[in-house]
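Q: I have two molecules that I believe assemble together. Could you output C-alpha cells for the complex as a whole instead of separate predictions?
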Amino acid sequence: MREKLLIGRLIDTGSQVHRLDPRAKLTAMLLYAAAVVAARSWPALLSLAAFSIAVMALTRIPLGTYLKAAKPLRILMLFILIVQCLAVKGGSVLLAAGSWHLDSAGLEAGMHAVLRMALLVCFTALLTFTTSPGRLNQGLEGMLRPFARCGISPERLSLMTGIALRFIPAILDEAQTIMKAQASRGADLKELPWKEKARMLTALLVPVTVSAFRRAEDLTASMESRGYRLGAPRTQYRPLSWSLKDTCFVAVFVLICLEVVWVGFY
Amino acid sequence: MNRVKTRPPNGRSAVGNQVNFTAAGGKEHVAARMAEQTDMVLLDNVSFAYDGQHEDIKNVCLAIGRGEWVTLAGANGCGKSTLIRLMNGLLRARCGCISIGGVRLESGTVGVIRQKVGMVFQNPDNQFIGATVEEDMAFGLEGMCLGAEEIGSRITRYAMRLGISGLLHRHPQELSGGQKQRAALAAILAMEPELIILDEASSMLDEKARGEMLELLREMHREERYTLLSITHDAEEIAASQRVLVMDRGRLTADLAPRELFRNGDLLRLCRMELPFRLQLAQELEKRGIPPVPEGDPAGTAAYPVTEVMRKWAFNWSM
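A: Yes, here they are, computed for all two components at once.
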C-alpha cells in the first residue's frame, strides 16, 4: 500500500529547490493553486504548464515521477472530463447520438478541468518530493505563527501533523496486515461484492483504530519521558532561515499568477 | 541456598536482602539512605493503584546505587512496568516517596527527574517521534533547550557510538527492529541521563539483535557513567546484571544476585522463566556432586565438567 503512495515522499537530489525554505515553498504552492484556479483559457493553462515543467526540471527529479504521483487520480480525472462534457453546452456539435450531443465547449471545459487537476497534483507533489515531512511541518508552523494571537497554537498543530505524517505509513502497513489476516481466514476483501466490502471495512476499521489508540498511548509515554511538555520552551535543531533565494522563488510565483490573470483578460 | 526472604509480616519488601545491602532491609534503612542521597534510585514505601482502590504496587522499598546494573523480573502483569513508570513521574504514586539522583519526585521536579531518567520502551515502533532517526534524536534535545550546534554534535557522537550514523536520515519504517531499538537508545543517551530504564527493550528483537543490545548494555555498564535498570525475561540479560529484583503481584519479593535466582526453582517459576540449557546442565551436574567452577578460577584451568560446559556454551557472568 505504501509503495503506491508516492505523494508525501522525499526524493532527495540535493537541487536548489530542495534547499529552499519550506515557508517559501508553501507560499509558492498557495500562489500556484491560485494561478491554476485563475487559468481559464488555453494560453493561460499552457503557459502555466510550461512554467511548471521548468520548475520540475529544476528539482532534477525525472518528470515521469511527477506523472506517477498523479496516476492514482486518473479515474477522478476521467470522471471530471465526462461530467464536464455532459454538462457544458455550447459551440459546435462534435458528436451526436440521438437526443444527446457532445459540444466543443463541453470538451474544452472538460480538458481544461483535467489539465488543471493534473497540474495541481503534479505540482503539489513537487512540494513533498523536495521537502522532508519534518521540514514541511516546520514550515507550516512558521506560516501559522501569525495566527497564534487568534487562539491557534502553531506548536500543537505542527506536532499533530508531524505525528500524523510519522504514523500514517505505520498504520497503513498495519491495516494491510489485518486485511491479510482476514483474507487468510476466508474473508478476502478483493473477492467480495461492494456491499459486503463496505461491511468488511468496519471490521477493518475497529482493530486499526484500537491499535492506533494503543500506539498513541505508547507515544505519549515516550514523549513525556523525554521531557516533552506542551507549551514548554524548546530550541530548534534546524531553524528555518529565509534568504534572498526564497524571496526570488516566491516573486517568480507572484509573477506567474499575474501573467495568468493578464492572459485571461486579454 | 534459598536466601530469598519471604515477605516479612509487616508487609515490607525485601530490600537489602543480598549483595548490596547487608543491613536489614526495610523502611528505616531506605529512609536513612534517603537522607544521605547517595543512591540513584530510592523508593520508600511506594504504593500505587490504577483505579484508586486495588493496589497494583504495594509498599515497595528499594534502593539502587549509582552505577549499578539491576534487572527487574517477574511474571506478566505483576507490576514491573507500573513500577518503573512511577520512577519518572509518568504515573503518580498514591503514597510513599520516590527520589532519583538525590532529587525528590514532586510535581515541581518532574522536569528535572525526566532529564535524569532515560526510558526505552518495548515496542520500537511506538516510541519513535521524529520522521527520521535524526529528528527523533533531536526531539529530546530540543526540549532541553540546547543550541543547534550542541544538538548536532551530540547526535553525531551518539549515533556513531551506537553504529547508526548511516541511518540518520531514514524513516523508522525502513529500519529493522534492532536498528530501531538502537536508535531509541541513542535518542535517550544523547540526553545524557544518569539512570537508564529499559522496559523489555529487547523482547521484540531477534536473537542476534538481542545479543547486540546486551553487548551495548555491558559496554554502558563498564563506563560506570550510567545506572541501568532493565525489565527483562531474558536469562542472558539477567545473568549479565549485578542484581535481580523479583516482583510478584505488586510487591518486591526478592532482591538477589542472578546466580542465586537461577538456583532457586520457586523464584524461577514465579517469574515464569526457564533457564537456558547450558545452565540447567551445569546445575544438574552440580546436584550430582560435580563441583561448580571454583572461586577465583573463572577461566577454569582445572578440568571441571561444569567448566567444560561453561566453556562450550559461553555464558557471561558479570561477577
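A: One point stands out. The CA atoms of residues 49 and 151 of chain B lie 39 Å apart.
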